[in-house]
Give the backbone structure.
Amino acid sequence: MKFFLLLSAIGFCWAQYAPNTKSGLTSIVHLFEWRWVDIALECERYLAPKGFGGVQVSPPNENVVITNPSRPWWERYQPVSYKLCTRSGNENEFKDMVTRCNNVGVHIYVDAVINHMSGSGVAAGTSSTCGSYFNPGTRDFPAVPYSAWDFNDGKCKTENGGIESYNDPFQIRDCRLVGLLDLALEKDYVRSTVAEYLNRLIDIGVAGFRIDASKHMWPGVMKAILDKLHNLNTTWFPEGSKPFIYQEVIDLGSESIQSSEYFGNGHVTEFKYGAKLGTVLRKWNGEKMAYLKNWGEGWGFMPSDRALVFVDNHDNQRGHGAGGASILTFWDPRLYKMAVGFMLAHPYGFTRVMSSYRWARHFVNGQDVNDWIGPPNNNGVIKEVTINPDTTCGNDWVCEHRWRQIRNMVMFRNVVDGQPFTNWWDNGSNQVAFGRGSRGFIVFNNDDWTLSSTLQTGLPAGTYCDVISGDKVGGDCTGIKVYVSGDGNASFFISNSAEDPFIAIHAESKL
Ligand code: QV4
Ligand code: CA
């Protein structure tokens, strides 16, 4: 009895830290700006068979339609109401997506924008994705409804009502982030209204939330909202499951607000991860891959069981948010694949893969002046994600998650789930390797010369298919074969000019 009580107490406290992916599935993918109909199809035709655990979707609630510039992606971070009605689709399409994805075991994580409503300078009217009227000048959002007293205007002490210093936690929480009307979340009406929105999504069947701009909300106030949330829908989730919570807090170590303030609420985005990994792979500041031996907490990152990790996100792949020029993206495909490969092989954190669209970058004085450009569209209507005969995507959807190297590493992470970090090897420079117990092994060559070494893999003897250069098809391998001998050793040869200078093998790529 005592033991049972202890177990259930642990189970209870840990609940919101469980990612709610189906057992054995270890990553989610952010299908940035995709339409709900395309996500439903992608779950069925690709994500489920390839072992993806879930999808982070763009904010599903009604937002401002910005016409100058024309329909930027960031209009979706300016809510007008909590109606499920955006360029990605309407409420029925949203429900259909959640149902179909859940039915094939791929869960949906919603980007929840609850810190604010529209920008204060946006004109009053019905320029919104569902046609709801709103008036930022008078703080009127009748479709929620919110009115003047639901905002923080009185509480913020800066001259223009905006955040002026990131060293003052009061400004950061109670003033406007880039002019966005800041909600008074300590008011019971406001928190109940937000909780009601999230509960509607939970009841539809979503598995969790990315909480946008968490740094700009008091952790205790967020907790009060989270405490009001329903358990997940039992059509797809075990009785008593709590939504997975990951909070967007950018903490690179130099500001007054720290990620650790948010650990009590759930996971937190670890922005140091992508910034540092990009620096290492680019070999900036004297960094080298050999230093990755103690990657994770050893690098000053948050505890692994609180970290949501990613190489790039929708902000920093285009110069918004944090991380700067070191961030690797699909625009640098060779290093990007290595970075994502490293992330998915390494046990630290819960992993999110980015899936982007291409836009016309235009640099002026090192700044991309087209960083605002929205998803591929016809007169504002988001284009379908078409699939080419070679399984890549058309219509300017990049679909990094479909790149063989990335897709196969998502599977690698599932196969090695629960295995320890083992058999680290490095040449003191940029050639490194490590294993995951007896289930997987990966080798990188980011030096300017050939890698040719015999390494202890920890794997049982046999012939393995390298899942970076190819696939195991039938009983054969379309890429490089690796021969592991009875003592676990294998010889690796990786040219520094290889298309992808890394090799990965795992228990299920054994021939
Ligand atoms: C403009 C002026 C302001 C002025 C305001 C007056 O620049 O000085 O006060 O008008 O109304 C857009 C525009 C911005 C504009 C603002 C309000 O870029 O120029 O202000 O709208 O109309 C995204 C974009 C922002 C965008 C915002 C809302 O990145 O550029 O602002 O959406 O459309 C910090 C935070 C972190 C945040 C990160 C980007 O701590 O939380 O910055 N990240 C998240 C999201 C991000 C999103 C928001 C938060 C806001 O990931 O995508 O911002 O929801 O580090
Ligand atoms: Ca706030």
User: Anything to note?
Assistant: The longest helix spans residues 188-204. The CA atoms of residues 280 and 287 lie 5 Å apart. The longest strand covers residues 79-84.
